[in-house]
From TrEMBL:
This is Transcriptional repressor. GO terms for biological process: negative regulation of DNA-templated transcription; regulation of secondary metabolite biosynthetic process. It holds the Pfam family FUR. It comes from Candidatus Mediterraneibacter quadrami. Signal peptide: none annotated. InterPro entries: FUR, Fur_C, WH-like_DNA-bd_sf, WH_DNA-bd_sf.
Length: 131
């Protein structure tokens, strides 16, 4: 996006997404960034998260409960959502697996598939251990 004005608040949001292994909601990002910028508004956080998503510097992951989560890791990968505790985790698959899924989908689709995103569901190891 040509001519995008630098913003310290946006950089703080992006930095937080890059360093966290979690996949925070906009509210969680807001609570974190507020520690550095106490006057930041929730609307500013939402606008910047959407902008970062639009320019490819973050990923928005829509979950079935209606809450969007955000990820600073933009390389192709999939996610796992624990149905018990709600944690959203990166699911490490090798690139060959992802490319194979894209290839199979493309064989049955009259168009061009450029990428994919899959959300797996189940119970995380922490929840299994608690049961």
């Amino acid at each position: 996006m040509a001519g995008l004005k630098y913003s310290r608040q946006r950089e703080s949001i992006k930095h937080f997404l890059m360093i966290t292994k979690e996949h925070p909601t906009a509210d969680e990002v807001y609570m974190h960034v507020r520690q550095e910028y106490p006057n930041i508004s929730l609307g500013t956080v939402y606008r910047n998260l959407n902008l970062l998503t639009d320019i490819g510097e973050a990923i928005k992951i829509s979950t079935p409960d209606g809450g969007d989560r955000f990820d600073g890791r933009t390389a192709p990968h999939n996610h796992f959502l624990c149905k018990k505790c709600g944690r959203l985790l990166d699911l490490e698959l090798d690139m060959k697996s992802i490319e194979e899924v894209n290839r199979l989908a493309a064989e049955n689709f009259d168009g061009m598939i450029e990428s994919s995103s899959t959300l797996f569901y189940g119970e995380c190891s922490d929840c299994i251990k608690k049961s």
